[in-house]
Design a protein that fits this description.
This protein is an alpha/beta fold. It has three domains: 106 residues, Cobalt-precorrin-4 Transmethylase, domain 1, CATH 3.40.1010; 91 residues, Rossmann fold (3-Layer(aba) Sandwich), CATH 3.40.50; 84 residues, Cobalt-precorrin-4 Transmethylase, domain 1 (3-Layer(aba) Sandwich). Helices cover 39% and strands 17% of the residues. It contains eleven helices and twelve strands. The strands form three sheets. Strands 10-9-11-1-12 form a five-stranded parallel beta sheet, sandwiched between helices. Strand 9, helix 9 and strand 10 form a beta-alpha-beta unit. Helix 8 packs parallel to helix 9. The radius of gyration is 21 Å and the shape is flat. It starts with a strand and ends with a helix. The mean pLDDT is 95.
């Protein structure tokens, strides 16, 4: 019988997600509607549905947005081609790109200007990767795995720079970078790792959590890279781990023989979903506790389109 539920700390919303949600909410208040959001503002259906209820309209492509309308770009960032398409359609753009993603874009452009071939460690098809690769399409190569790191070719092995998708596993990225460093000893990396503080903190917390429990539940969406990585980190420590949208996704069979269950959540997940999962177990007689000590006090300024109005 389950005795205890332990909630990881930190978990849930990061500063970039808080900022992106606030961008949508303030745009709905300040600009004449309707307000359109390109793609999911963050990768969580609960957040998207809540904003849709408030009046936001979500579209996949800018061609779905009437000319001259207000459009918000998601926290994952977009390529220059998307910005150009918005100008062509005379859209009022509010850019909710996470500042840490913008930092990677700036690095990519700087490396290209200095003549480097850029190796981007990331996952094909992810919106953040598409945006970053669009910044310097002729100078960048995507490296997804250790195997690809061993095989990638560059024009000048002495002029290579590496950048990373912000939401990848720290450990996985380190392995790929080590392979690349062996192949390209003069490879340049940014002064600080591109993996964001929230990804790092949540992975460190789930490592600690996994050592204390029999099972780990990660609340997050299937298309949330950082949520999937939390599952992967827990499993790498030998603990069964599952990704669920909310407590309704809990399979009773997972709990067989588990005395202590750990719960964490991805960076785009409202904490209400964690509390509902905790209450689900509490109603069955489980004690609820927290594990962790990092207090995150990072805040990002709103984009100028909002701040100056």
């Amino acid at each position: 019988m389950l005795h205890k539920v332990i909630l990881a700390k930190p978990r849930g919303f990061c500063a970039g997600v808080v900022r992106a949600i606030e961008v949508v909410e303030q745009s709905l208040e300040r600009f004449p509607g309707p307000v359109y959001v390109r793609k999911e503002i963050v990768h969580n259906p609960h957040v998207v549905n809540a904003l849709r209820t408030k009046g936001a309209r979500f579209v996949d492509e800018l061609t779905e947005v009437p000319e001259g309308a207000t459009t918000i770009f998601s926290a994952h960032g977009v390529s220059p081609a998307v910005h150009e398409a918005a100008r062509t359609r005379r859209l009022r753009v509010v850019d909710a790109t996470c500042p840490l993603v913008t930092k990677v874009h700036v690095e990519a452009k700087r490396f290209e200007k200095e003549g480097y071939t850029i190796l981007l460690i990331g996952h094909q098809g992810h919106e953040e990767v598409e945006g970053t690769m669009g910044e310097v399409p002729g100078a960048i190569r995507l490296v997804q795995t250790v195997e690809e790191a061993r095989a990638v070719t560059v024009p000048d092995p002495g002029k290579v720079a590496v950048i990373t998708q912000t939401t990848l596993s720290v450990d996985d990225t380190r392995e790929v970078i080590e392979v690349l460093k062996r192949r390209f000893p003069r490879m340049v990396t940014p002064a600080k790792e591109d993996i964001c503080y929230a990804t790092q903190n949540r992975q460190d917390a789930v490592k600690r959590l996994a050592r204390e429990v029999d099972l780990v539940l990660v609340i997050g969406s299937r298309n949330s890279e950082n949520s999937n990585q939390l599952v992967k980190v827990a499993r790498s420590l030998g603990k069964p781990a599952y990704l669920i949208d909310d407590h309704h996704g809990i399979n009773p069979n997972w709990l067989a023989g588990a005395l202590r269950v750990g719960i964490t959540s991805g960076a785009s997940v409202p904490d209400q979903l964690v509390q509902e999962a905790a209450e689900f177990f509490k109603e069955q007689g489980a004690e609820v506790a927290e594990l962790g000590f990092i207090e995150e006090n990072i805040h990002f300024a709103l984009p100028p389109e909002i701040a100056r109005k």
